[in-house]
Amino acid sequence: MKTRKIMSLFLAGVLALGLLAGCSGKKDAASEDNTASSSETKTDSESKDGFKVAFLPTDMSATFAAWLAEELDTAFSAYDDMTLTTMDSKNQLETQLSNLETCVSQGYDYIILLPLEPAAEDDIVADYIEQGTPIMMINLDDLGVEKASSVIANPYDLGTVVSEYAKGELKDDANVVVLLGPSGNTDSIERRRAYEDVLFSQTKITILDEQIGGWEKSKGMELMENWIQVHGDKIDAVISMNDAMAIGAYEAAKAAGIEKNVKFFGVDGLADAAVAIENGEMNATALQDAQVMAEEGARVCHEVLTGENKEGFEKLQIPVTLITKDNVDEFIKRYTENGMLTE
């Protein structure tokens, strides 16, 4: 088994956010509105004049959100006329809505939103757009907000590519457990629909149980521990809606000594999942590429702000890639080159 350090851009990005918010002497953008739980950071171009853009992620302690924030910082640093500020929602809808209101009241030129609960936010987003603030939904569908930009990896496609691969890896009457994302979340709904259409309805697979893990590694581990207590070695596979929960489930299986008899499937394509696949601990994941998402998001934002985009919005889907043992080396190389992994 190869040992690699999973580093960096995630941890460094999160630490940088905390250090900047706590030690820079700059006032948090949301502090005047009593949202003290928000965090703020700016790209290296923070002294530039030009357009002010805000990124409102779900929770910077979540690995994918931290990766996306880091990639957005990099993408925006390539533009001389845009400055990016990140405000952490800390997995609290009220905080995200307050940050959204603050950005509008403080005159931000553009808002990039990684929404916590799209169904609860779409009407608010539509109203702000009508009032003149352009907004992009990133990594989650716009849920029909006509004039909102969106840059996403289609969640149904993410579920589909993993399901197709799993169908070839599992016996037709396999027993599986399923780790779900948050209830009502668009990605959760669409990935589950893909699992049903492509995998479960096309085989004699038995779902022993499925539970909400909320994207959390610790919850994936806890649920797997419970399942092992109930089902023992009957579990043939874990179908997880993200990599973090899958890795948590693997660690629980390893502690119980059954990991070699269980297959693990995830979604996100994170560096730690690539390492797990390289080491034979996970079987597959579907990449939703934060780097491409960020680059396209910055481009759309710039074209809207400069007037190059006459409609004022753009909707696009980035490609989805399956990562398995057959192609994981290229992703290990990529993540090593950009500092997310070290030997």
UniProtKB/TrEMBL annotation:
Domain of life: Bacteria
Signal peptide per UniProt: 1-29
GO cellular component, one term: cell envelope
Subcellular location: Cell envelope
Record-given protein name: Inositol transport system substrate-binding protein
Transmembrane segments: none
Key words of the record: Signal
Family of this protein: Belongs to the bacterial solute-binding protein 2 family.
Keyword Signal part of the UniProt annotation: yes
Pfam families: Peripla_BP_4 (PF13407)
